[in-house]
Amino acid sequence: MTESRVASAVPEWGPLETPGAGTALTLSRGALQAAIDLLLAAGGTAARSHHAYMEFRRNGMKELGSMLAAFLPEAVSKPVFSRSDLEEFATGSISRCFGPEFGIFEGRRYPRIPNGKLLLMDRVTSIRGERRRLEAGSSIETEFDVPPDAWFYQPEIPDLPPYSILMEMALQPCGLLSAYLGSSFLLPVTDLYFRNLDGSAELLARPDLRGQTVAGKAELLSSTVSGSTIIQKYRFTLSCSGQTFYAGEAVFGYFSAAGMANQVGLDSQKPAASPIWDGLSANAGRTKRYSRAPFRFLDEVAVEAAGGDHHLGRVSARQKINPGDWFYRCHFHQDAVMPGSLGVEAVIQALTALYSPAAPAAPAEQSKISFPKGLPFSWKYRGQILPTHAEMTLSAEITSRASVPEGEQITADASVWVDNTRIYQLTNLGLILK
């Protein structure tokens, strides 16, 4: 058989699994011809190339698949889970995504990942860990392709996405790894809720992510069970083009319906009627807020320029809960709850009021926002904001401020209440305002 006949005898075929390697190859007649040409250039013959091809077919195309993977750009890694797989898990069939053993959870409310535009993962590239063992060191690697015109970019933030989006990018792989490892099998007859409880994170760089792929990694550090509660701790990183730009740790919990109903907040349900507005001084400036959709979380903001224990400024805000808000549809399927990250976003918006005109009427008048590098920020959540609640209120106090080349850098501590129960505590939240 001549070289030209070898090429003409090669059929077209679709994706082929490489057994044991987790690699999928899409090969065409032209691609195989290119591989044969490479083999010939390396000193092979048409006969040996054809023999290699026949061995390839007889052995499940394994050996030549590995050879082609070294030469051809068409040889690409197949993701463990694709975007469509993740969307299936977010709102559809659990067993269709994770396998038949998860069939016992079909038809029940099961802890999910965010869906719709709040799903900030496009694929899973690697998972390490054994189902149902929940061993420290189990890990997941994900990717998210950030569109150049992504829905979450805001004009007032010139480099990074909103801070809440960074948090979601970093935390969502933790939840997916937990679900994949089968955490719910520890309490298989209990319908569980999955919630972030604590966390700390640090911004290491400020890359422009538009049109880039963000790689996320999460590693399970520990997992413990007590009664109907599971507590897990994770380490996470975000990177772009090989550079890690966000890193931290977070604690998550699985709770039964009874456990969720017994949440007492950060103050053990001590009375906290009107914790913010009744304590404002008479000269506090009040303004309707200007934040843009979809990040419009505040109805009213009150500013005390020299308020707080440090006399550097204090800001208070409130928002009527709207059960029709977009994030309740995205977070989560059959378990609508406002993401804690959006509570953080509301605090950030309130803080910018300290540096905005008294009555900002036009978007151009808003402060430009950036986030300081190397400043550890921590959060604690001990409650949730549901569509059935009436009002969210918050208070943030400036703890330090300094001039930096990019503008004015501030740090703040804050609390968030829902219907007079304090549920979030934020410490060392940093902003740079221009």
Quick rundown:
With 434 residues, this protein is α+β, with helices and mostly antiparallel strands. The protein has three domains: 3-77, no CATH class; 83-261, Roll (Thiol Ester Dehydrase, Chain A), CATH 3.10.129; 277-433, Thiol Ester Dehydrase, Chain A (Roll), CATH 3.10.129.10. The chain is built from ten helices and 17 strands.
What does the model show?
With 434 residues, this protein is an alpha+beta fold. The protein has 3 domains: 3-77, no CATH class; 83-261, Hotdog Thioesterase (Thiol Ester Dehydrase, Chain A, Roll); 277-433, Hotdog Thioesterase (Thiol Ester Dehydrase, Chain A, Roll). It has 10 helices and 17 strands. It has helices at 3-8, 29-41, 46-58, 62-71, 83-91, 94-98, 163-180, 257-261, 326-330, 340-352; strands at residues 15-18, 23-26, 75-77, 123-128, 139-145, 193-203, 213-226, 229-240, 243-255, 285-288, 300-304, 314-320, 369-370, 377-381, 391-404, 407-418, 421-433. The strands form 2 sheets. Strands 4, 5, 6, 7, 8, 9, 10, 11, 12, 13, 14, 15, 16 and 17 form a 14-stranded antiparallel beta sheet that branches. Strands 1-2-3 form a 3-stranded antiparallel beta sheet, covered by helices on one side. A hairpin with a 4-residue loop joins β1 (15-18) and β2 (23-26). α3 (46-58) packs across α4 (62-71) and α7 runs antiparallel to α10. The protein is globular and about 60 Å long. It starts with a helix and ends with a strand.
